[in-house]
Amino acid sequence: MSKTAYDCVKIVRGNDRPTSIDLIKGMFTEFVELHGDRRYADDAAVIGGVGYLGERPVTVIGIEKGHTVKERAFRRFGAPMPEGYRKALRLMKQAEKFGRPVICFVDTSGAYCGVDAEERGQGEAVAENLVTMMGLKVPVISIIIGEGGSGGALALAVADRVWMFENAVYSVISPEGCAAILWKDAACAPEAAESLKITAKDSLKFGIIEEMISENNLGKPEFYQELKTKIESELSELSGLSVEELTQKRYMRFRSLGRFERSE
Amino acid sequence: MALLNFKRRPQNELELGGRQRIEMDQSDPEMTCPNCRKSSPSSAVWQNFNVCPECGYHYRTRARQRILMMTDSNSFSEMFTGLRPSDPLKFRGYKNKLEAAGAISNEEEAVVTGTASIGGINTALFVMEPGFMMGSMGSVVGEKIVSLFEYATDKGLPVVGFTVSGGARMQEGLFSLMQMARTSGAVMRHSDAGLFYLPILTSPTTGGVTASFAMDGDIILAEPGATIGFAGARVVEQTTRKPLPKGFQTAESMLEHGFIDAIVPRTKQKKIIARLLKMHTGNKAEDL
Ligand SMILES: [Zn+2]
After folding, report:
1. Which residue range(s) make up the domain with B117?
2. Does the beta-carbon distance from B181 to A197 stay under 8 Å?
3. What is the mean pLDDT of chain A?
4. Which residues from A are below 8 Å from B107, CB to CB?
5. B224 in contact with A at a CB cutoff of 8 Å?
6. CA angle at residue B164 from B158 to B165, to 5 degrees?
7. Residues A95-126: pLDDT tens digits?
8. What CATH fold (topology level) applies to the domain A5-250?
9. Of A49, A108, B59, B105, which is most buried, counting CB atoms within 10 Å of its CB?
10. Which residues of chain B make contact with A124, given a CB cutoff of 8 A?
């Protein structure tokens, strides 16, 4: 495989990849979309709702980019506002109340960057999701299906299992942003992408994700069938844990994700 | 207040260099305020908690200076030392940056952690260091914050923390992003144990620190004029291609929009922190 990290970036930014809506259509039945954060607005960049995965009722939350130019503008290219994260939070708490597992699809270049987003507390919204997801008493599986851009992606990826599609990328900063800050030249983005180790393979190697999902047949019925079976079997396993075991394991999963040296 | 003739018994190796660290910023006899342009004797600025005596401008303040200003004398005991950043991505130039940061700040990393008493009340304490890569959060910062919250949860202590950070340390890639989740988990457990967490946001507090433990406090204080935000102001301006509103991402704007509890000038912070600690621990604080 001679694909570079930046090739992956370009692939997942394409407008013909399956989005959260496609994944929901492909795997869940009787889906009912639920809107709004009950605080301020309904953010089109985050969709959520309830439906069945096989026999099991679940809550699904996804960051949606859309396909066409019109859709993409409406979905703000999948860059959530604080109210998007707060909608997700509301649906996760609802899932907890009714004992439903939560499935998250992550596909964003990052949380929306703007004056209004800042003034409505983008930082607070992300922070609140991290804390709440860490303690959520139901199983959570997050799948990075395209771009996993920084805190805006992590806000839906504090989960018991985190998976990535084969070509998906997960990064603390966009390659362009990194290149601009470190080398004062956004044209160095391919080099930055390489240096930041943003591919699914790297994330797997570092233990930041559990699985890399093959993109053979991506978007075809057999792809959805296979992924659906995989999520179901994982949920069966997670559902066997007590709430204490589940939250302790989730805490320890993230507790171990640091690399440093002890010089004592 | 006798900040200048401060003496204390070093309690561990890292503390040995502490006094030298604190004094090195006072080498110039005069300081010119970047806000009002007036000069004041360094000693006068220092005795005024590193706040301009003329206009109230809050100078950027080093971690150990803050500890000295905010805690009861001789009460600070440093913990979780000896952790050093590794270079998990073998990121170009990172090793050199770390070396330079160590030399500039005279610190091992971008946060100092331990316990102290404030107004006679024992607390866990973290203070971030602007001199070390502008307080950026990598694995070591995450580990020290997590360890401190776990210790405080175990011992039933409140946590007081001063934040200053440019955000995630991108040279550590996803490991730096993961620190947002790690620290949030530790804060959650401390909170679930019914314990009190009081962050004080100082300038700048941005990015991944804002979007994790800075915003997780039971009560959130900030310094006057501090820059507080998630996305960098310049990035917002470039993205939106519009001039930023006046006072954008300041402590004052955060207060107006309901995201912090109060703005407290540095000269009053110790008193307010002690008062809040007293109300949340059931201890009797010394009268300040
Ligand atoms: Zn001044």
Report:
1. 61-281
2. no
3. 97
4. none
5. no
6. 120
7. 999 999 999 999 999 999 999 999 999 999 99
8. 2-enoyl-CoA Hydratase; Chain A, domain 1 (3.90.226)
9. A108
10. 211, 215, 259
